[in-house]
Amino acid sequence: MTLSALDPGTAPYLDLSDPTFSIRSEPVRQARAASWYARTPYGLAVLRYDDVQKLLRHPKLRQGSYLWPQHNDVTGKFATWWMSMLLCQEGDTHARLRRMANPAFSPKLIADLLPKFQALAGRLIDRFAKKGECDFIAEFSEPYATGVICDLLGLPFEKWRELADIAGDMGLALGVTFKRDLPIIEAATEKLFAYAEELVADRRANPSDDFIGMLVKANADKAQLSDQELLDMIVLAIFGGIDTTRNQLGLAMSVFIDHPDQWALLAERPELGKAAVEEVMRVRPTVTWVTRAATETFTYNDLEIPQGTTLHLFSQSAGTDPAVFPDAGFDITAERKAHFGFGGGAHHCLGHFIARGDMTEALKLLARRLRNPRLNGEAQWLPDSGNTGAISLPIAFDPEA
Amino acid sequence: MKVHVDMSICLLHGQCVIAAPEVFSFDDEGQLQWLADVDDGLRADVEAAADACPEQAIRID
């Protein structure tokens, strides 16, 4: 029998609009055991690994947040960028933009950046290693995540604070106060475009094979990547790369504080750095769900999903699904199936090689130099849903001699 | 040029289909199809597909 997603039916209900809702709570685990999906105030939540994988790439679904500015009754510079940029495109336009962007994000280009990431991490750790304590977010993950973007763009590290503030102001657009904060968001968007224009002018004058240089090369054929699309792409790379990495590294530290034996193991065996990033993202992804929207009515698993339905694909719940991860304790030496912390399908995170590379280098170095990390006061957290992470994370560790 | 896809790690994201549509495609069942033996004229596209694969499941010989 086919049920409709509009029917109340017997499917579990999860109140995603409750500020205390947690993606890691017992009700989510119970819902996942009972059903592949749950109803929510904003459409469906998809809970199990296999269904998340299939729906991430389902041909009847498109990326789900393209109407966000419209839903908030907002127009302007941010809204125009949002609607035009890669993430909100589908089909041929999306494929063309993605093909143009790929060379700038290729794993080959990242290899050249790893020594810079190591140097950056080392420099930041030097500032607090002897103190035996720090706020991990303010003193490491935020300057590191932004410093990585500076390295990527070829900007001096000293620019990090300004870039972080611009990205933070622009990020207000993703929150519930979007419309109220619009003047701040518009000013930040303008500043970021001015940065992008400066970078492009520089590489046109001094051609290079770095990240911006590769995008400027793709722009040589304006039919493939127009001047506006070039700027939109650079703004996306900066906007998309800062908060996500900052949050994910804070989550990594928090998970390892709960698993000191794993941290000690990583210190001993730095070659596990890459696996450590994957294991953290499996159990504690900052992007706890990604959204899709139905472009037409279709039936999936005997459920009729009407056109326009929003689906929240729960990456966190998929990554801990006992059907796929029966022995799912946090273990950086375990062989695991891939997680969906970078989303998947056509919209799979474009910057994942950079993110994986920079987080691997950071965790390797942190594990070696910060021994016995522990909480040192009360951490402040974003809600445990949507894009999550710590706002502050005071930690103590054995001071470096 | 020979193209191999390790289907034990492929998650069917379709990034190869975007990068090299003349070589990779999805059939009606959503399964990945690809040309195992490809003319060298398409090497740049196939290399772009191998680079773009999030699971790094594509090998070129």
Automatic annotation (TrEMBL), chain A:
<keyword id="KW-0479">Metal-binding</keyword>
<dbReference type="InterPro" id="IPR001128">
    <property type="entry name" value="Cyt_P450"/>
</dbReference>
<protein>
    <submittedName>
        <fullName>Cytochrome P450</fullName>
    </submittedName>
</protein>
<keyword id="KW-0349">Heme</keyword>
<keyword id="KW-0503">Monooxygenase</keyword>
<dbReference type="InterPro" id="IPR036396">
    <property type="entry name" value="Cyt_P450_sf"/>
</dbReference>
<dbReference type="Pfam" id="PF00067">
    <property type="entry name" value="p450"/>
</dbReference>
<keyword id="KW-0408">Iron</keyword>
<comment type="similarity">
    <text>Belongs to the cytochrome P450 family.</text>
</comment>
<keyword id="KW-0560">Oxidoreductase</keyword>
<dbReference type="InterPro" id="IPR002397">
    <property type="entry name" value="Cyt_P450_B"/>
</dbReference>
<dbReference type="InterPro" id="IPR017972">
    <property type="entry name" value="Cyt_P450_CS"/>
</dbReference>
TrEMBL record, chain B:
<dbReference type="Pfam" id="PF13459">
    <property type="entry name" value="Fer4_15"/>
</dbReference>
<keyword id="KW-0408">Iron</keyword>
<protein>
    <recommendedName>
        <fullName>Ferredoxin</fullName>
    </recommendedName>
</protein>
<keyword id="KW-0249">Electron transport</keyword>
<dbReference type="InterPro" id="IPR001080">
    <property type="entry name" value="3Fe4S_ferredoxin"/>
</dbReference>
<keyword id="KW-0411">Iron-sulfur</keyword>
<keyword id="KW-0813">Transport</keyword>
<keyword id="KW-0479">Metal-binding</keyword>
<comment type="function">
    <text>Ferredoxins are iron-sulfur proteins that transfer electrons in a wide variety of metabolic reactions.</text>
</comment>
<dbReference type="InterPro" id="IPR051269">
    <property type="entry name" value="Fe-S_cluster_ET"/>
</dbReference>
